[in-house]
Amino acid sequence: MKKTNRSVLCLAVLAALAGCSDDETIINTDSGYAPVVTQGKTLTNTPDIVVKSQNEVDEVTITIGATSDLHGRIFGYDYALDAVDSDAGLTRISTLLETEKANNPNMILIDIGDTVQGNSAQLFNDDPTHPVVSTLNSLDFDLWVPGNHEFNFERSFIDRNLNHFNGAVVSNNIKWEENSANYIRAFQIFEVDGAKVAIVGVTPSNVPNWEASAPGHFAGLKFDEELASTRAAVDELIEKFNPDVIVGAFHIGRSSEGGAGVYKIAAEMADKFDVILAGHEHATYIESVQKVAEGEDIVSTDISVEAGDTAEDKTLSGTYDESNRAQSVKIIEPGKWGWALAKADIKLKKNTDGKWEMVDTTLSNVTSKNIEESQTTSSQFQYVHDISKADAQLVLGLVGGDFTPGTGADEAVHEDYDHETGRLYSTIHTAKVMDTPLMDFINQIQLEKSEAVVSAASLFSDSSNLIDGQEYAKKDSTNLYKYDNTLIGINMTGANLKRYMEWSYTYFNTYKDGDITVSFKKGAKAYMYDQFDGKIDFVVDLTGDSFAMDENYTVTNEGSRIEIIEIDGKPFDATASYKVGLNSYRWGSNIKKFGWATGDDVYYDSVNEPVYAIRDMLTEYVAANQGVNASDFTNPNWEIKQYQDNGAITLLRTDNGAGQALWNRLVSKEICVKIDPDNPKYPGILDAVNVNDATSYFVNPTKDYAGCVTE
Known about the structure:
The protein is of the alpha/beta class and 711 residues long. The chain contains 17 helices and 36 strands. The protein is 22% helix and 23% strand. The strands form ten sheets. The protein has an eight-stranded mixed beta sheet with strand order 3-11-12-14-15-18-16-17, with helices on one face. Strands 9-8-7-4-19-20 form a six-stranded mixed beta sheet, with no helix packed on it. A five-stranded mixed beta sheet has the order 25-22-31-24-32. Helix 11 (437-450) crosses helix 15 (614-625) and helix 12 runs antiparallel to helix 15. Belongs to the 5'-nucleotidase family.
């Protein structure tokens, strides 16, 4: 039943009162709606139509502003690094909004998810309202689409914070299992000077896989496939409200990740959507996607000025008006952590029949780089910064010995990650290609806790390192293990363990003659590359076939990169069962989904332990031992064949010829490697530096970090 002119105040006290004094308010106890999260009902804490302005006009520009993937960043500060981040934080977005709202007082302001997790935000999870949500409220955000990381904690956490957000909360594909009713609204209608704008939300359907080890995080909920659910939601909103503009607010990547991505929805529903604002990918882009029929090739075009992702180039995009609006849809993403405020200006004009028609749309990313932080917002939430910084700086002990060779993580120049450019200088973190105490630290803690024989873990951050003599503060655990993963122990057959290892090493491209470094498969994500430790000895050969599966997870190539020599002191046996420790994300998203183990194979789950997060296990160890020593975490159990003493890469680097000369140029910062431009969230090395291929690297004009990001 339609509910209009319902006041937010009325909704807030609905549970305590039988009604409100507003005679126009209609309260239906059997409507399927509820003002707070209620089992089987749709959370509805706003009117069906939120009126932003009521001027009598014949032309109107509707402005929508959006943030995404804030990951706890109220302030432009990275607590894991204990450093200022000059293009991040709601405090900088707040400053941008002062200007934007002065120019566009009726702006519809939305956040597209992954909002309240990350950057020490978990310190405030028990607050009645999370301070990031309070910050959104203080900035008058109109709408919030929950992302997948909102479900990293008990469902009561997301319930509580959705309840306490002052605006609309929308996502069309989160449903109650018991009756398939929407958990929250599928869409929200806004009215600006008589023009109706519908905003349709989407959350990744893969949440149950990502959170499989902790089903309490999404208890009672199901996540429908994105495209079909969005089709149904749009059909419903057109039938009920016939909006003048339809906008998507999608917390999904452009390509599929266990469901439909932005490209697929945009291409097949371009005749319905006028603009799609997206998140999840941590990317920055402004593109146009052409309408296609199901199954046809998707055509997307970068329409930003000089491919800079900050302003739409109208000479590329042309005019988007009533005559062609059904043929394409524009999409935009504002990056991560408050890098930008995505903005969509939508111009409408009434025709002679009084109906609103499209005049044009224009997209832009208003960046926060070096923008002064709002003193009002900073002062209001200063306590969050103070508590987070003090917690990050809490010294637990001292580091003994270097955890990677030399004093820096980069394998060529032995320098650490550069925080301004967001990358290693030249090649790769040494701990990704060599067995180091840095990764053994994580794996051996997992082995001890899970009592496994084999442990698997990822190096999430290229900025991770531990150097002899440094103080180990709590932030170092966060930097080394930035996700809120728990630890799972499973019984796994040798055959499936081998598949798991082969799958992990698809992260690397095949070695080619003349390579003096390694490179990563295009689009590879760092967190998908696990390293294996424990009572297992193996060799990796990057000339071998890469493991492969089809879309149904049927193995099409078993791969031949991994030679397991022995496990637990015995020759490897594909038919044997081995105890394997791994993180909860890997368990639910991959191992269980691929059919390599089942729930019955789980013998340990740290969610039942007082210290349940892997990151906190590292902190617990250092605090108990007043430090951590590299010598206690040295278990040389694997090598990449090309890095052995007589391996092809090692021999080329020391050949007293062209290979060594090229390697020396890399070491001396004369040349740089190429970074995958299409993988902004996890930028990897696109090409191995090859002595036979001058296009595999480029000359560094400045011999500093900045010079290596100009290509």
